[in-house]
User: Fold these one by one.
Assistant:
Number 1:
Amino acid sequence: MRILFTGGSGKAGRHAIAYLLAQGHRVVNVDLTPLDLPGVDNRIADMTDAGQMHDVMHAWAGYDEMEDHRSPPRFDAVVHFAAVPRLLMKSDNECYRINTIGTYNVIDAALKAGVTKVIFASSETTYGVCFAGGERRPDYLPLDEAHPVVPEDSYAMSKVANEVTAQCFQRRTGADIYGLRINNVIEPHEYKANFPAYMSDPDLRRRNIFAYIDARDLGQMVERCLQTNGLGFQIFNVANKDHSVNLTTKQIIDRYYKGVPAAEMGERETFYSIRKAEELLGFAPEHNWRMYLDDPLEV
């Protein structure tokens, strides 16, 4: 497939692009900073400028395409990851402005260019747990896509607004538009760098609902969305299958979630439910922290 990918130079995007390239796709990365990765085409553009987004949707991927086409071919899909990536990086109103206007511009340009598959990055923060003032617990466990999304912060608010925007575009056009509520992205080197601290102090993972997503498995999730058609507008949680701490499901509930209604779950099953992605997309995470720490840890 010929794919336009926004925000591919960021932490999550660069691993997802590497995965897509390995599947044989051609990827044009649209970002403010180019991605230094063999095989990727880069385009510098600002997603908050509608004209720039409409231009890149109708542009050559590289000089080689000029040999076979009189005008640029249409993209088969757009993957939109570009964003201010978290709270407390820019002013709250600027974070909200960039993320919402940028997402509107990207989806609008994609659909007007005839693209019928758009995948966009939403966030775990939409559930209101991650960036809440004080402690906020899920309404029930495991937390699935039907859980209320009522955040308090500008970053998560922007992601909720983007989901509504995407749903409205889908209703108008009939395109497939899938939103990914991505949990805390972990790069391969971060297992040894960060996870020993999580084992010593599980409190560090409370705001992430004790979940995580390996960056390479996020790439697989994008690929599964690209290969699955006809679902219309959908929202999917994205996480790995297990907890990010060395405690069982029961131990975590006893320590952090007493009184929270909980369905029957596996001994180490993530509280950030990925059952919908497993059932509708065939998503099957391949990496977990136990594979990458030197010393096996006993519960």
Note: Helices lie at 11-22, 50-56, 92-112, 154-173, 190-200, 215-227, 249-256, 275-281.
Number 2:
Amino acid sequence: MDSTSPDLLGEFAADRLLLGRSSTVQKVADVLRGRIAAGALRSGTRLSEEALGGALGVSRNTLREAFRVLAHERLVVHEMNRGVFVRSLGPADVADIYVTRRALETAGLRAATGSSRLAAVSEAVAAGESAARDGDWAAVADADLRFHRAIGGLTGSERIDAYLAGLLAELRLAFAVMADPRALHEPFLRRNREIAELLVDGRTGRAEAELIRYLDDAQALIVARMRQHQETE
């Protein structure tokens, strides 16, 4: 039976009018998400509709729809009578992010044996080490997040990759409390290298144990700094 009846085709024709706008909304959301993930838009930053709309050449309605997409992803928040702001995370948010990270990244390690995707893990480690030698700690942060996304990517699941990408962008918001990015990232460079080498050697069980300790330590470090920050406000 042909399901494309004239009535249904008429409905699709009406939907077509929405496609251009929908595509623009997603592109705007992608741009803003990328700026958040790169640390250019930090926690607490107010996102001005007028300024951003002018800079991106889009209408306020399109921008508002993009904000709704990012709010659903927990990257921005709308405050009544104040506007839209990049979210600020608290210790409970960080704890929840790390629970999810442990599940997704350990799944990647369990799928690592024989994976053709291991090269991406080693490449991210090398990029982080190179950036550290140059003293570029923002680039070290970028490489570190690529390392963890590459670990999740060992599953070969597009859904896990997309979810982890959003989760790591959200985690970037927590980095705002770290006055010294070097203090956050330098201790983990060696540990990234150790995990990558364990994976190359096929020692995935040991790599998983190391990764869990690693994530526990990273969570504790960020939460401790958050609490210190709250006490001094």
Note: The chain has two domains: 6-86, 91-232.
